[in-house]
Amino acid sequence: MATRTAPPLALLLLASFPVTGLAQEAVEATTIGGYGEVQYSNHSGKGTPGEVNLERFVVYLAHAFSDRISLRSELEIEDARLENGSASGEVALEQAYLDYRLVDAVTLRTGLILVPLGILNEIHEPPTFNGVARPDFDHDVLPTTWRELGAGVVGHLPGVSVVSVRLYLLNGLRADGFTAEEGIRGGRQQGQKATFANPSFTGRLEYGRPGLRLGAAFWYGGTAGQDSVLGTGAFDAPLAVVAADGRLDVGAFQFRGEFATIHVGDAQAINSRYGSAVGSRIAGGFLEGAVNLLRPIAPASRQTLMLFLRHERFDTHAAVPPGTAQDPALARRITTFGLSYKPLWNVVFKGDYQLRRNRAAQGQDDVLALGMGYQF
User: Fold this and answer.
1) Can you tell me the distance from the alpha carbon of 48 to that of 150, in angstroms, rounded to the nearest whole number?
2) In terms of CATH, what superfamily is 2-375?
């Protein structure tokens, strides 16, 4: 058996579909990788000192059992440690699944799988995105990191290798975890004794060539969790998500954007049952542009210094059901600008400034953030 280090899952995902990775190189081999990040933040409107945190430490482990069957897994530690009685910290499997390559264009996948919505849910290592923290849109609208148990297929369209496909049947969300502020985030089951009372379908179609990636994705399933008040059918209290994203690199310039809209069926019944104030529609997105300041000075250098600007607009109360008051503070506008310096492709030092606003002009503040991250 051979053991070696290799680029983490993000690069394997970007390379091609199906992901067979190690299986193409050796009959049996093991890959070790990982990523991590430290973040400092100082909120100007809170009157509190700055805070520094070891946000994540992740170990990636993959193994090719044969030229057709392989395992991929990630174990994550958040906030440096987990202590009895403390609300902070988490140790969790971020993903753990088996791939079985049927033919070159089709691979079966089963286990704890990352939902293929948006850019960051599948590819979220610190050197792959600008800004110290992930966009708030990818927390409150698309709840990164989102993973569920199930099975499906990955691959590419026959004869069209530039178009990749993922299609999964996964366990559904639970409506009892939905909130007004964070939308559907608290409804994720994340592989822990997850009920399959409400199966969900999710998929992604992606076009990719050097310098350009365009993706469209969906999620549909029930959220009742066999709560008889909401219904015991497989698709009772339905939830539908439609998302699109794009990435474009042109010379020294980089552009990316995401958009998603979520329809929460039976939001009125959910709010009545659980005393919540979930919106019936959640929507928003972001646009980002960046330029490599080192390109004119040292065009041959592999180092990059990205000056970026990102603007997010999203509303977890884009629409509300009868009986729920619409909260204008949940219509958020976040502008972030800063620098990301990469001396190597897999090491990054970041700094940014964030303007956090909302339609109600309440609880607004500015945030200065510094950070570093790595992947291997």
Assistant:
1) 43
2) Porin (2.40.160.10)
113-133: pLDDT as tens digits: 999 999 999 999 999 999 999
What is the distance between the alpha carbons of residues 106 and 168, in angstroms, rounded to a whole number? 13
Count of CB atoms situated within 10 Å of the CB of 84? 4
Token pair of 86 as six digits: 């403390």
Cβ-contact 294, 339 below 8 angstroms: no
What is the spatial distance between Cα 328 and Cα 308, in angstroms, rounded to a whole number? 28
> Residue 85's pLDDT is what?
66
Beta bridge partners of 77: 57, 91
Give the domain ranges of the chain: 2-375
CA distance 159 to 103: 13
Measuring CA to CA, which residue among 286, 107, 78, 278 is closest to residue 190?
78
Report CA-CA distances (Å) from 327 to 250, 296, 364: 40, 47, 15
Closest Cα partner for 278 from 147, 177, 199, 146? 177
User: In whole angstroms, what is the distance from residue 127 CA to residue 305 CA?
Assistant: 12
Specify whether the CB–CB gap between 327 and 317 falls below 8 A. Answer: yes
The pTM (predicted TM-score) of the whole model is 0.89
CA angle 124, 130, 133 (to 5 degrees): 65
